[in-house]
Design brief:
The complex is a heterodimer of chains A (128) and B (123). By secondary structure, chain A is an all-alpha fold. The termini of chain A are far apart. Chain B is built from 5 helices and no strands. Chain B has a single domain, classed as Up-down Bundle (3 helical TM bundles of succinate and fumarate reductases). In chain B, helix 2 crosses helix 4. The radius of gyration of chain B is 19 Å and the shape is elongated. Classes of the chains: A mainly alpha (128), B mainly alpha (123). Chains A and B meet through helix 1, helix 2, helix 3 and helix 4 of A and helix 2, helix 3, helix 4 and helix 5 of B. Chain A: Membrane-anchoring subunit of succinate dehydrogenase (SDH). Chain A: It comes from Rhodobacter calidifons. Chain A: It is found in: Membrane.
Chain lengths: 128, 123
């Protein structure tokens, strides 16, 4: 496309110029939660590796995984995965060409935020 | 002046220079993960906090082992591709290449480590 991209086009203002709105907040949160999940995955896989290795190794990994730090990482990851999950479903819905009008998009954004918290609480209650 | 049709010029392009394949792969893996993740969260959440014997028994049995293996492979591919998109958005040149290579390796190392642990518990 190099031969058609000669004219100096106006640039759109970057994120910090806009007033925060639900659709943009829920969009960037999708990316943040998706990448932050790597912390929970690393801790979980390390814990599995320790369980597969030896009693003494498991004692160390399990102590970390069930400490306040482990609780923080896994609880945060649980919310992150549910948020990313709902936002991903919303992405599939958007990809089908639906829900793109502003009132619906805002409702879907709130559904992701509230739904992720509700699902996190339900999951914690289920697995306790 | 290049004698080339607009269609030909657009083919195989897009922001990352390889069209829509990446997007389609993310769509396919996201649908797969939509089925895997809720069940896995329950299995993992139940096992977390239990004794080593109970954890090994859980992840050594067929359903949790296969589920976790699928989650690791599909999930880590999904992660590597998503991270690649983010890097393509924010980094340029050599930094972009190095970061993409790094997250790709990281994703494979995590998946391989998890699969090794599963194999050891199941076999």
């Amino acid at each position: 496309m190099a031969d058609v991209k000669q004219a100096a086009r106006p640039l759109s203002p970057h994120l910090q110029i806009y007033r925060w709105q639900v659709p943009m907040l829920t969009s960037i949160l999708t990316r943040i939660t998706g990448h932050a999940l790597i912390a929970g995955v690393v801790l979980g896989v390390w814990w599995l590796l320790a369980a597969a290795t030896s009693d003494s190794y498991f004692a160390v990994a399990n102590a970390v995984a069930t400490s306040w730090f482990g609780d923080l990482v896994f609880s945060g990851s649980l919310w992150a995965v549910w948020y990313h999950y709902l936002a991903g479903l919303r992405h599939l819905y958007y990809d089908a060409g639906r829900g793109l009008d502003i009132p619906t998009a805002e409702k879907l954004g709130w559904a992701c935020i509230i739904g992720s918290v509700v699902l996190t609480v339900i999951t914690i209650l289920l697995v306790q | 002046m290049r004698y080339i049709t607009p269609r030909k010029r657009a083919e195989g392009r897009g922001a990352a220079h390889y069209g829509t394949e990446h997007h389609w792969s993310m769509t396919v893996s996201s649908v797969g993960l939509a089925f895997l993740v809720p069940v896995w969260l329950y299995v993992f959440g139940r096992a977390l906090g239990q004794s080593r014997e109970a954890v090994v028994a859980t992840f050594g049995s067929p359903f949790p082992a296969i589920l976790t293996a699928l989650l690791l492979v599909v999930g880590m591919r999904h992660f590597a591709m998503g991270a690649t998109t983010m890097i393509e958005d924010y980094a340029r040149g050599s930094a972009r290449k190095m970061l993409i290579i790094f997250v790709t390796c990281l994703a494979w190392v995590i998946a391989a480590t998890g699969l090794f642990a599963l194999a050891r518990m199941a076999l």
